[in-house]
Here is the input.
Amino acid sequence: MRRIIATSFLIFICFLLQCTVFRALAFSGIVPNLLIVLTASFGFMRGEKTGLLIGFFSGLLIDIFFGSVIGFYALLYMYIGYMNGKFSAIFYPEDIKLPITLILCSDFFYGFVCYIILFLLRGKFDLTYYLVHIILPEIVYTVVVTLFLYPVILWINRSLERREKRGEKKFV
Amino acid sequence: MSPIIKRKGEKFTLPSKYLLFILTILCTGMVLLTFHTTIFSGPLGMVAGYTIVPFQEGISAAGSFLRSRSEELGQIRDLIAENESLRTQVDELTIENTRLQQDRYELTNLRELYNLDSQYDEYDKIGARIIARDAGNWFYSFVINKGTDDGIVVDMNVMAGSGLVGRIVDTGPNWSKVKALIADDSNVSAMVLSSSDNMIVTGDLKLYASGVISFEQLIDRDDVVVEGDKIVTSNISDKYLPGILIGYISSINRDANNLTKSGYITPAVDFEHLEEVLVVLELKQTVE
Here is the structure.
């Protein structure tokens, strides 16, 4: 229960930051993708199911406010969360290389799918332009923000796990 | 033994691949359903309106306060110089204004004669504040703090100052989503004010940085349209009210087919620093 409240609160905060504060701090109109960081980190920290559920709800929130259809971003974020969950077996909290790589790949995947479905299918073929001006800057900005956001997510997850373990011991 | 059948005394859990499968079908269904209809936007918009919008309003109010303070400090020097030049401009404009007022008086008389409705300064408008901007980097849409409770419905036109910003595409009880004119997936039917030639104005992600929007399919056989001409919404558009200012032509080129022209328009609205907008509480009359 405590975990559900904490995670929904995190999704909530990240979404709000992404569409208000970071919009004001945007470098040349590019905002970092905090919800990808959140989805991916919970994916590899907690496994496939948590990843896909957090991805689903983050995406749904974007769909309601900014999507032209409901379900597109939910689907995209959900698969990103699920894919990251596959890596939970080789995840160690002490190692920062794997999380950074995974978040980088997730954001690239997100940008690429967005380009293909939302732009390429409308006849906008200039991939290099969109790659250089939208996808890559977003990845760089997201990775920079990850360096600050990821430790916070890690700390929250650890304290939740500690609490859950204590609760289990009490019952035994 | 099947992984989803419940064994006695064991807590029921759904394996993640089944959950992924179910949610995928759910999402695909929702995409297909909402592609042409807006059935979910009612309940989902209501929930979102009462949980998230209050926070967005608070944060963006604080954010814009901080940003305007920091901008103020940086701009004082520029403002002094600008003030000087503006004062001289005021004098010039006062002279021009008196001349125009005379013209206007004549115009009103003529309009009365022709029994014409006057232009858009008589539309009913409502002011609203922008509380959130697109969470991604691909499109340009934003959320404002007025919704169906204030009489806003989908397809109403949104203006800022005297120029067109876009139109409402989704509403909740206390919020609505505006798709801007400059968004990559937006098209507006427009016309040149002086010659009434029609054209299509299209937003383009590639042009965000240069602050212009593109237009195409302008048929101008006599070469009367020139740079600097005023572009307004056309009277054949089915979403936009006629005669709302879009911007001014900044460059114009003949297309390869030698029949039509295309080029760029500088919008009348500064989309970079947009904070408050006006929603026109009137819908374009359509033939149903």
